[in-house]
């Protein structure tokens, strides 16, 4: 049973799902260990290295145009911009994923400008072929 009063709803459900006495998936000391912050686990130098790498690959001009290139959820840091470039390279048609929140929401959200949607493939340097 979920015990919200103990403040561990999500962890409890996941841990319980993997806690099998007959066929243990994970050792108990791993399954029930304290969750650590990402930076505490990998070390700050690794995170600083990722930020430095992003800063080398995203210049100030790119950041000044970020709102035009990525009108939805515009990246605010060079690191976020860099990850977004990688995502868009592998998932160029993912604009539909971004827009699904607008169309499936029960709350009326302002739609992004259609020009931004129409221009997205060209901004990403890709040609669009529409089949009818």
From TrEMBL:
Keywords: ATP-binding, Nucleotide-binding. InterPro entries: Asn_synthase, Asn_Synthetase, Rossmann-like_a/b/a_fold. The keyword Nucleotide-binding applies. Residues 7-96 form the Asparagine synthetase domain. GO terms for molecular function: asparagine synthase (glutamine-hydrolyzing) activity; ATP binding. One of its GO terms (biological process) is asparagine biosynthetic process. It comes from the Eukaryota. SUPFAM superfamilies: Adenine nucleotide alpha hydrolases-like. GO terms for cellular component: cytosol. PANTHER family: ASPARAGINE SYNTHETASE, ASPARAGINE SYNTHETASE [GLUTAMINE-HYDROLYZING] 1. This is Asparagine synthetase [glutamine-hydrolyzing]-like. The gene is LOC108831139.
């Amino acid at each position: 049973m979920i015990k919200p009063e103990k403040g561990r709803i999500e962890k409890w459900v996941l841990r319980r799902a993997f806690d099998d006495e007959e066929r243990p998936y994970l050792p108990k000391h791993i399954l029930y260990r304290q969750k650590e912050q990402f930076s505490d686990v990998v070390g700050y130098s690794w995170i600083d290295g990722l930020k430095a790498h992003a800063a080398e690959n995203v210049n100030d001009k790119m950041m000044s145009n970020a709102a035009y290139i990525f009108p939805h959820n515009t990246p605010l840091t060079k690191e976020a911009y860099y990850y977004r470039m990688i995502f868009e390279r592998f998932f160029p048609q993912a604009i539909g994923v971004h827009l699904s929140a607008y169309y499936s929401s029960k709350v009326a959200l302002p739609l992004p400008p259609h020009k931004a949607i129409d221009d997205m493939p060209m901004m990403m340097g890709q040609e669009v072929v529409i089949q009818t």
